[in-house]
Amino acid sequence: METVFAKSRWIWLPHACVNQYADFIEEFVWSGEGPVTLRISADTNYAVYVNGKYVYSGQYPDYPQYKIYDAFDIRPYCCRGNNRLAIRCSYVGEDTSTYAYAQAGLLFEVVSGPSVLAASGPSTHAREDRAYRSGRVEKVSPQLGFTYHYDACTEDDWLCSAGEGFAPCTVVEKNCALCERPIPRLRLREGSSLVCAQGEFWVKEEYPTAAETVYRSFMRHRTLAELGNPFRMETRLPSETGVRLASGASGVYVLADLCEETAGWISLDLEVPQDALVIVAFGEHLRDLRVRSFIDGRNFALTYRAHAGRNRWTERLRRLGCRYLQMFVFAPTVTLYDLNVLRTEYPAEPFYPDIADGLRRRIYQVGVHTLRCCMHEHYEDCPWREQALYAMDSRNQMLFGYAVFRDGGCYAQANLRLISHGLRSDGLLELCFPARVGVTIPSFSLYFVLAVAENYAQTGDAAFLREMCPTVESILRTFAAHIDASGLIPIFSGEGYWNFYEWKPGLDGGAIFRDFELPVQYDSCLNLLYRLAAMRWESARTAAGEEPDEEAPRRQERLRAAIERAFYDRARGAFAVTKKGGEAEGYSQLSTALAVVSGCMPEERDTMIRSLAEDRSLTEVTLGNKLWLYEAWLAGGESNLSLVLQDIDRTFGKMACQSSTLYETSDGADDFELAGSLCHGWSAVACYIYNTFARGKV
After folding, report:
1. Helices H / strands E in the chain, number of each
2. How far is CA 93 from CA 134, 145, 222, 265, in A?
3. Closest CA to 132 of 263, 210, 19
4. pLDDT tens readout for residues 183-227
5. Tell me, what's the pLDDT at 47?
């Protein structure tokens, strides 16, 4: 078996800091014969260039103990004789919702057959990058971490020839297991944008961040003709001739519409007569008649300092998700050739069934695009605000994706494996992966169990099921040990536990962060999810040939009886949300639907299904939990399919017709204090329903 990185050492700069950018160079000689393979791993991200040509960027997110390396052919970029390998790295340096803190480092080797042509080590030269601003800067969001500032005025030609400030790097110690990338690399797709507005802006006051400064600037719309473009009414970018903009104000702005939700790397091409600051805001809507770049401390903007003359730049280390880009150029004139996003896509081909109904066909298409925007190296809850992998969100995306993308469940398995490395010492999973967050949601660990069982149902892969077994059983043991004398699981009352189920009063878990313990309380959703997860896990493992747990049926029967006694209201035909001090409180579609799906009160099933359809006093499920409602209705038989399809029409029809993606919640952009996501993978439930239950009936 080939030994990888036998001659390589982990390296970095002599001193590491948060939000650091570093450049590395290595020369190697190639005979011109045979393959040339680069293997590389970085903490946190990398972009590779060979002889000045861009090759690839995109470290697979991982954990300190579970490190991923890429291996790819670089022969097309090499020449006979001397070659120059240049690698630009970024390092986050602190925990976020998308990164778990680890020692900064870069590891690489270039091999041709049995020969190692180059390897990272003390002879590799490095420097702190001259163009990116290293150190602590403002954050896009708490989940995404730092934004970036790039200064093209300080660029040199280090990708192709000697640059200033390089010195031998430092060898660092990283104790980790190395695994090859488990999924295909992302592919790139060029796109276009439409200039939909332009004009002048005035900055009367500078605020702490660039995002807030431009958000609070004064803008005046001007036609393209007024700004120096006679007879030009509409402009698509990229443009060979460019769009000329001139103003006597603080500068000029341009608003570009990518025409659909897009995820990828920002790409700029502009010409200015002098060095000039450029601020680019990115967002999903224009409800404020501009891009909403500053939202309650979040900063959806980046800065680029353009040098005099023509500037062509594509950022390669931070992916953005947005539909609109708004560029503010602090210069009297600018010629704009391009303002765009280079699309980065996971290479999975979607399946499009024959859907006769036009509205439902549109809902399906928008659902597929939503799912695609939320899958890159791993599933993401949304491409704009967080790009975070959650167990609950991804369980939906996996289930919906099985019906849309035909990859045999491999992508889902890679995500589940990554999630499994986030098992905490308390037997629960982290909130996000790979990450360390100061709080976790207990119920989300149960969604992981459901996702593993469902993956087996889709793939029949018993080996993968056994691989996940230690994590799953640790989670289930934790919940079983939490059952008290009532026969129920009380909420996790300590600090650091957020008892969340969905974004509705009584179900949202209250304060996310708190410094006090909660009183004893029993939540029906937590107990029902545990029952359902334990049942489906036992079913999956026995189907995979594992020895059945003889005690499981008795445990499940005791739990079922306790749940029914505590939460079921026979007069209403519904399950209460919670029980405090012996009193049941609140009634919801979610708790009642979970009861139906998990087989509670089977003799009352039809009554509960009728309540789910007719009782308007029940707290409605949110978009991310529509799946439970639909599964409960369909448990009553195929005759209820029309009920499900009509609800999909009502719930998703309008947003599908006015947007390219499906929203986080029904309130869209104005939810969460104006930070609602307009692209959330957990909402694409129609794709699953149409392909699984309604094939040929829509």
Report:
1. 14, 35
2. 11, 10, 44, 22
3. 19
4. 999 999 999 999 999 999 999 999 999 999 999 999 999 999 898
5. 98
CB contact at 8 A, 193 and 258: yes
For the entire predicted model, the pTM comes to 0.97
What H or E segment, with its residue span, contains residue 321? strand 320-329
H helices within 544-670, ranges in order?
Answer: 552-567, 589-597, 605-614, 626-634, 641-658
Report the candidate in 99, 62, 90, 78 with the shortest Cα–Cα distance to residue 27: 78
Please check the confidence at residue 547 and state whether its pLDDT lies above 70: yes
Neighbours of 297 (CB within 10 A): 14
Q: What angle do CA 132, 343, 354 make, to 5 degrees?
A: 160
CA 494/CA 251 separation, integer angstroms: 53
User: Across residues 469-494, what is the average pLDDT?
Assistant: 98
Please, which pLDDT band fits residue 162 given cuts at 50, 70 and 90?
Answer: confident
DSSP secondary structure code for residue 379 in this structure: B
First to last CA, the chain: 52
Cα–Cα dist 542/457, whole Å: 12
Q: Which amino acid is at 272?
A: V
Q: What is the pLDDT of residue 158?
A: 97
Average pLDDT over the chain, rounded to an integer:
96
Before 434, cis peptide (omega within 30)?
Answer: yes
Contact by Cβ (8 Å): 30, 16: no
For residue 651, the model assigns a pLDDT of 98
Question: Looking at this protein, which amino acid is placed at residue 588?
Answer: S
Distance CA 414, CA 180 (A): 11
- Comparing C-alpha atoms, which of 340, 304, 337 is closest to residue 322? 340
Quote the tokens at residue 658.
């006015």
Q: How many CB atoms lie within 10 A of CB 94?
A: 13
What's the confidence (pLDDT) of residue 1? 39
CA–CA distance, 498 with 491 (Å, rounded to integer)? 9
Return the sign of the alpha-carbon dihedral for residues 423, 426, 428, 430. negative
Hey, what are 323's tokens? 């539909």
pLDDT at 3: 87
Q: Strand 251-272 vs strand 320-329: parallel, antiparallel, or unpaired? A: antiparallel
The residue-averaged pLDDT of 432-453 equals: 97
The number of residues making up the chain comes to 698
User: Among 127-141, 215-229, 305-319, 477-491, where is mean pLDDT lowest?
Assistant: 215-229
Q: What is the structure's pLDDT at 138?
A: 98
pLDDT digits (tens, 9 = 90+) for 350-389: 999 999 999 999 999 999 999 999 999 999 999 999 999 9
- Nearest by Cα to 376 from 681, 686, 689, 40: 681
Torsion angle of the four alpha carbons 574, 575, 577, 578, in this order, in degrees rounded to the nearest 10? 130
The helix (H) or strand (E) run that includes residue 659 is none
Tokens of 600: 């509670």
Going by C-alpha positions, the residue among 145, 313, 283 that lies closest to residue 215 is: 283
Spatial neighbors of 81 by CB under 8 A, at least 6 apart, are 29, 30, 32
Q: pLDDT tens for residues 402-422?
A: 999 988 899 999 999 999 999
- Quote helix, strand, coil % in the chain, to nearest 5: 30, 30, 40
Across 172-214, the runs of DSSP E, i.e. the strands, are 177-180, 187-189, 193-202
CA atoms within 13 A on the CB side of 135: 3
Phi/psi for 325 (5° steps) reads -120, 130
Torsion angle, alpha carbons of 509, 515, 519, 523, to 10: 20
How is 306-339 classified by DSSP, letter by letter? EPSEEEEEE--S--EEEEEEEEEE-SSEEEEEEE
As beta bridge partners, residue 583 has 580
| Structure confidence at residue 248 as a pLDDT band (50, 70, 90) | confident
Report, as an integer, the average pLDDT of 526-540: 98
Task: Give all domains of the chain, ordered by start, each with its CATH number.
Answer: 11-180 (2.60.120.260), 187-345 (2.60.120.260), 358-692 (1.50.10.10)
